[in-house]
Amino acid sequence: MLGLINRRVSEKLNTVAFGDESRALTAYQKRVWNSLHKTRAAVISAPTSAGKSFLVVEHLCRLAEKAGRFVAAYVTPTRALLSEVHQKVQARLKDRPDVRVSAIPTLEEEHTYPTQIFVLTQERLSTLLSTGANDLAFDLLVVDEAQNIADGSRGMILQDCLERIAERSNKTQVILLAPGAIGMPEVAKTFGISDLASLSTQLSPVQQNRIVLTKVSRKPRELALSVIGREGTRHQLGKLELAQSLNEVKSRLALVAVELGGDGGSLLYETGPREAEKAAECLVELLKARGAEPSPGPLDELSKFIKEHVHPDYQLAEMVRYGVAYHYGRMPSLLREAIETAFKQDKVGIRYLVCTTTLAQGVNLPARNVFIDTPKYGQGKPLNPALLWNFAGRAGRLNQDVVGNVFLLDYEQWESRPMDKFVPFNVKSATAVTLLTLGGRIAEALNARVLPKALQSDPDTGLVRSGAGLLVAHAARKDIQGYLRGVMGTAPAQEVDALAKAATAAYQEIDLPDHILADNWTIDPFGLRRLYDNLLEKIDEGRIYDLLPMNPKDAPKGFYESLFGRIVEQVNGESRRFGALAGRLAVDWMKGIPYPEMLGRWISRRRWSERKKAEQALEEGKTPSKPKTLDALIADAFDLIEETVRFQFVQLGKAYRDLLLHVLRQTGNSDLVPKIFDFALALELGISSKTGTAYVELGLSRIAASALERLSPTDGPLTVEAARQLLRELNIESTNLSPIIVTELRRLGLVKTETYA
After folding, report:
1. pTM of whole model > 0.90?
2. Residues 479-502, mean pLDDT to the nearest whole number
3. Of all residues in the chain, what percent are helix, strand and coil, respectively (each to 5)?
């Protein structure tokens, strides 16, 4: 009785009103909530499922509702998490049309939107800071998964953004979120925050059993189970006889998941997208062998959506009917979100979901069971133990499970035992580490006026390129000495001076406008100079109109393929053929062409290429390579879109546009400046029309935006407000929109509730 009274009193004391709903917070959540409004800079560090982001989103929205003028940015490391946060904020503020919530890095006039909230990756935030509004200051900056400031070149971009924001205002409230991290106060000092408050806990509202699964010697169908206790001790639980043999290593994880994880939803960790697809295939085969039948209802709708909006022969469409799916960051956002939604539907949804490390980047997807059989990722690279703990933290659903299960298969045979004791993220500035450990190579490259090619076999080459570009940018910002002293701390003065001297000399020789070098430092600065010279040369040849980007829907055939080829050749020294190969897909992507048509064209081109290579091999007396499966080709397209089109080409495209605008003004062709199409933004969004961009601005996915654009009136492009009004008046039942798209519209509060009756 005393315990019950104590609990009820605690719940009452910790209850906070969120709109029309009252919610009892945990003791940790209440401490954080009480601190948010009076702390200028804080790191909120707690395990997954502690409810960190929920509180911060509510704090952000309340400030937006109260303020007359308010600008905020919420930064996420992945587009998957960006989409999730964007939709939460958009839905929370759906009744405030005067508040702009956008994932697009462009500014609107303050008289239209006095309050603007940006939900961006660090790359998009960097673009926003480079839009020319040097006086843009933020009232609130939230960085989710802030431990990623230690993540190589992308961590360097994040830190650069934080430094630039700190320089613009000392009144910005900065909130850093991390799933168990140490070292953030020291890192914060490198971007101007010396008073970072720490709101931390290691207590999780949901506990996990870490269960070790070991194949019993000479008994292929028998598993020994033990649970990991304090200090890594093992407590034997007993043995379990399985229905099938464990001798086949490739199917072990799937087999164990089917045996132990059929109830409550199970996440399986795999090292990469291809491996996730193969594990999902194994799961379906095992379930079919046990007499499983396709599930009717919501999973049928999901299968139909995949066939209609991704590709009719995509294997995932059949898998989901058996309650199995895979999930990785390069999938189309609405497909990924539909899979997440189906996984959260306990009895009628997906029961087994195979994931990569994308899930450990903050996406909210808890499960009753998590299965892991390796501490590695990619091609056998060691996985940060803290990231593994973050993934394992998905085990246990708040308000549904008292405890979650983390099953560790063949754990005793792993090269390390990272799950014996909790390992936090030990955060260090990627910028500081790069300059301190690779400073000599960076200075050498700058002095030689040649940056090394980025090689997967040597990750340091990419860091040298980023470090060199960043230092040239600071030389352009006229703060190189002070910057290096601040970041490199106690490094010997001669090392700091050598880097400053090399960066200054390179900056002077490159001789481009300061804003171009400062805003495009992720691009080889010497390559920017080569591209600049090439632009001047083309203008001298009278080919100025060959240089002007236009809407891809109006561009002549081959225009963008040639443009991308020239850019990668001049800037990166790569073959024009690569630019042309990726360029065709990029053009279809920018046009907003639906996935089935775009992927169909891609597959046709790749099949043609395979046939030509096979014919050549036969002529040379060689055995032709085996053609790729359709799903492998689709996966290749997803990779190319996310890694090249939406990352490399976006950065190169922005740099090209900045250089072209400068060259046009320099050569007396300023009248052509208004004709320049912002193709970098079209590459990022996968939409080139104003109407499509308006729908994306409202938080909708590319798939939904493309479908809705076809329903929009043809008498001119829609503004954001016109698009919002059209959706409010739309009769959903008459549109034949997929239920998945309709669900997205409802989640964002963009359609009237009664249309769902």
Report:
1. yes
2. 93
3. 55, 15, 35
